[in-house]
Amino acid sequence: MIHGNLEGIRESVLADLEKLYDAEFPRDEFLPDRLLAILVRYTMLINREMLVYLSREGTILEIAIGSIASIALPELHLRRNLDRLSGFRCVHTHPGGDARLSDVDLQALRLLRFDSMCSVGVADNRATGIMAAFLGEMEYDKLSIVTFGPVKPGRIPQNLWMREIELAEERVQRAIRQGGLTETAERALLISIDSESSLDELAGLADTAGALVVARTLQKRVKPDPSTFIGGGKAAELALSCQALEVDLAIVDDEITGAQQRNLENALGVRVIDRTALILDIFARRAQSSEGKLQVELAQLKYRLPRLTGLGTSLSRLGGGIGTRGPGETRLEVDRRRIRRRIDDLSQQLAELKKQRDMRRARREKQEQVIVALVGYTNAGKSTLLNALSGADVLVEDKLFATLDPVLRLVELPENRSCLLVDTVGFIRKLPHQLVEAFHSTLEEALYADLIVVVSDYSSSTYREQRATVFEVLRELGVGDKPVLEALNKCDQAEIAGEIEPPGAILISAKTGMGLDHLKAEIGRRVASMRHEVELLIPYAKGAVLNWIHQRGQTLRETYEDTGTRVLCRIDSKTYQQVKRALETE
């Protein structure tokens, strides 16, 4: 796949360039002569800048084409590590013949940690010079830049420059050991047409994703502008703010179309992502289990598929950075077919994992294990509550979506009872429908639970809105008729005056332990009322009823009499009522 500005380039030229992905170059040469000749030839042919990512193994990872004066860096969706370089060098051409690296080139080297940034001046069907830059020692809290050249084409010090990559790697690791190198957060501008509370939540999401919020703007509109979401005048105003504040990224507090994203990027001059892309990125960072990673990738691909036009999206697993970006036009139909095939493949893998999970759930039901699901808004304190009730050591962070994969723990209840407590992924306003679809198998832990405990942050100023969102998502999942117990968490931080809302909810503090005994007792009371130990005589003509009991309850004793099967069993209230009705009908 060739990225960038492909307009007007013949298909035969693009096909020739794609063959570079199958080529192999000497691993010990910084810029092989054969690759240099290819870059010079096609730069002259199309009269535009060209760029390749050349790996240490001598293979081409990415190819991009720009304009005569500039080129956008394709994103590999490889997460940048703090303890090493990227593993590939960026080689690009300058059609005007000037081989010198620009300030933008050097900033990209420092930010993206390339093995090296290399420029090739091209004019009159030949290379006029080659210049290379590498990361140097720490100076004034950032890595310096070591440059070589420009040198003539036949005078490239191949071994010296390859050795310089090794030295740059050592410098980065040394800077880390000395504590001088930290990740530079992207400077973000937040844009909303909703409310200040929604902007506050977006700021929390941006912080969780690792961005530094430097500005935020709220524009009251009846509906979004179809072109730029915020309108041309507001976009022009924000463009000046982006320049003054050195903004790297604009985050829109809603899901926007691909056209709106491109128009807004052109107007602001910075990368733009929407709320959905931001949440997907957070999920990509948080995914730990193999199933969680598959679910995230499926959600990302479903999000990207309708936005392919003009985005040049890579198909790597779990996109890197905050959100997604890709310059210029791509081979759209090829991309779409690949994405659809990958979506089908992921769906099949998740279907197999669902079968395994259903088998485990069936075993739990046979063992009469009562399931209690903790659900609630993200960062409401569900994981802290799980740890407090079960003595577990689940990761707890003051971040949104700290828990992604479901966690099950056994909890001892009063009167020698117990239950399995499930901590599920948190809900949020404007939860991307791609995530609801992809994570349905995870969210179904609530669907099959015997009791749902809705945990709310009672100290939040948006408590009512958050609670409404949780119940709305539960209705979408089809669990609106499940028994529900509400726990109002963080009451030690809340100002409580008058009657609590809703009536019957239990005030708790998972952090201090306040109200947890009351909560356990109420869960135990609910659990006890869910099971009935009954003795029934099932006529032989109604064998299906006996199968219900075997499948949905626990059989304690079974004997055969003249008129039917006498069974002593434990079954839940719903099954008991169904059995009674079946036995009463002729």
Automatic annotation (TrEMBL):
Main location: cytoplasm
Ranges where the Hflx-type G domain occurs: 370-531
Subcellular location: Cytoplasm
Keywords, comma-separated and alphabetical: Coiled coil, Cytoplasm, GTP-binding, Magnesium, Metal-binding, Nucleotide-binding
Pfam families: GTP-bdg_M, GTP-bdg_N, HflX_C, MMR_HSR1
GO molecular function: GTP binding; GTPase activity; metal ion binding; ribosome binding
InterPro entries found in the cross-reference section: G_HFLX_dom, GTP-bd, GTP-bd_M, GTPase_HflX, GTPase_HflX_N, GTPase_HflX_N_sf, HflX_C, P-loop_NTPase
Gene Ontology CC terms: cytoplasm
PROSITE patterns: G_HFLX (PS51705)
Positions in coiled-coil regions: 329-370
HAMAP family: GTPase_HflX
Functional description taken from the UniProt entry: GTPase that associates with the 50S ribosomal subunit and may have a role during protein synthesis or ribosome biogenesis.
Subunit structure as annotated in this protein's UniProt entry: Monomer. Associates with the 50S ribosomal subunit.
Protein family (similarity comment): Belongs to the TRAFAC class OBG-HflX-like GTPase superfamily. HflX GTPase family.
Name this polypeptide is given: GTPase HflX
Upper lineage: Bacteria, Bacillati, Bacillota, Clostridia, Candidatus Pullichristensenella
Gene designation per UniProt: hflX
